[in-house]
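Recap from last week: sequence in, structure out.
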Amino acid sequence: MVTVVASVVTAAAAGLIAHRFITRARHLPRQTTSGSLPGLDVSPPQFWVTVFGAGFGTFLVVYAVTGLVVVAFVPAVVVATMPKAYFSRKRSQRIARVQEAWPDGIRDILSSVRSGASLPTAIENLALFGPAPLREAFQGFDVYSRSLGVVAALEMIKNDIADPTADRIVEVLILAYERGGTVVPEILEDLAEATTRDLWTLEQVRTEALEQKINSRAVFVLPWVVLVAMTARSGAFRDFYSSPTGLVVVLIGGVMSLIGVWIASRLSAQPTEPRVFDGGEPG
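Predicted structure tokens:
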């Protein structure tokens, strides 16, 4: 009975922590009208099932190995926050692929325009023959542009990608479409060069931050792996951590670890560019 109650409490605590991380994380945007998170093929109920399942499953596994509720609690809470990191990473990878494809995609549009095609036709060709990430992002543009108009179709694409880089590019494409004339190739050429420089900067920032993130996560995981290994067999270590003194030590260590994870995540977090062209309220 104690195990079941502790498991439920662990899953609930893990869910609350993950919920707080999600509501404060800018790189996991708000829910869309289709019921799925932007850039991900997962709905909020599916996400919460994953969070609670990860926390509950980890608690049962560690408890089965150590026989100690308090030792199983902190690893379960930490593992329950991993789905948020996984889905955020998955969305970031999708956005990164789209960002990396933009320079080639813009140059494809520029080539089509210089060969005599209109801008809407050039964008339709991008959706058919452009880089794979942009083909996926612009899927259905031809249908939307004919039924709703070019500007409305581009706005839909922009909201679906939900990325500041895409916001700027789409806004420039809208401007080029509205201005028209001989200025369009010049606008597209400047846009391709500016986007390439922005991507070089982003890649440099990601590379420099990767090693620090790996080191910080290892520092907080290793002590709990050692604790589980020490209490896996009966003996002095298990007896100590079964006592009230051991319980206090584990609770203090767990609180310190969670605070350290929070501090490390704040220090290693990359500044998120706001979406100033998303059409929402400022701030």
